[in-house]
Amino acid sequence: MAHQPDTEPFSGVSPASTEIGVVGAGLVGTRVAALLAARGLRPRIVPHIHATELLDCSTVVMAQGGRHAALAGTFLSHGVNVVSCADGMADVLALVDLQERAVANRAVLVPGSGTMPGLSGLLVAHAARAFDVVDEAHLAVHGTGGPACARSHHEALAGSSIGWHDGEWLQRPAGSGRELCWFPDPVGPRDCYRFGTAEPVLLQRVAPSLRRITARVSATRRDRLTARLPMMSPPHAEGGVGGLRVELRGSRQGRRHVEVVGIADRLATVAGAVAAEAALAIHSGGVGPGVRVLGEADDAGNGLPNADLLDAVLSHGISLHRYVGN
Fold first, then answer.
1. What pLDDT digit, counting tens, does each position of 218-273 carry?
2. How far is it, in rounded angstroms, from Cα 240 to Cα 81?
3. CATH second-level architecture of 119-267?
4. Tens digits of per-residue pLDDT, 271-299?
5. Among 25, 183, 185, 284, which one has the highest count of C-beta atoms within 10 angstroms of its own C-beta?
6. Cα–Cα nearest to 297, from 166, 181, 227, 205
């Protein structure tokens, strides 16, 4: 069942406002720039080697491959807001550690602004409204947004993964823990495995009541066997339709309750929409300085407008599906 936006999407800001910059001219970066241009802005898009040309922007979307934390720290030191599409575990955790620098320079940093992490946090916050208490979150992703994303997922199947279990962080080998996960059509069922992602850390901020958090990625036997080797063949310019699956468990009216929502779309399209809307939200003002995680609540009213952000992302033709069963 497709979700219809509850409110009108953001109208954007005046073209006369300070510019938004985009680092990276790949699939995600060009889609971010196109979406911002459609809102009447004139984003400046540059390759990674020319990123410092954007230090005069008010907000920068980092959509290039590789590590983001060091460059993000430079932008923050100059008071530039940052939206990062990085999804590597070490890099996202390093971005979260930039809280003090962001606050000191009155800048906003939104880490993990892609599909997972990114849209996943918005969906957890959205689905959690169906519960009195939500205590488990189990997420899975299928597909990649482009070559850099494919390389990141390849590396994430090697090494270690983290999960949250009854108040403790558990470390498990990446590529273990096979689970058959059902994504919305046309993706369907896929074998999914633990992988190196910072998603559990971010989701703990989104829903502090969670006692168990797991995150998995789809993979073939060949993916798992070759994860510690260089990629055997160059990644595709853009993969086919990917998917995101969010399963929440908890209680409602004294009974156990389960909600499963998901999307099936090209992941570069999804990541571009999430990053562009996050950039517009902080560029428009009203978001307090510091690290702001998509989906995280803020009782002081200085956080991201998560419900509006989800509606805005879905307004780009991305359909939200909800599993309905007995």
1. 988 877 766 666 655 655 556 679 999 999 999 999 999 999 999 999 999 999 99
2. 32
3. 2-Layer Sandwich (3.30)
4. 999 999 999 999 999 999 999 999 999 88
5. 183
6. 205
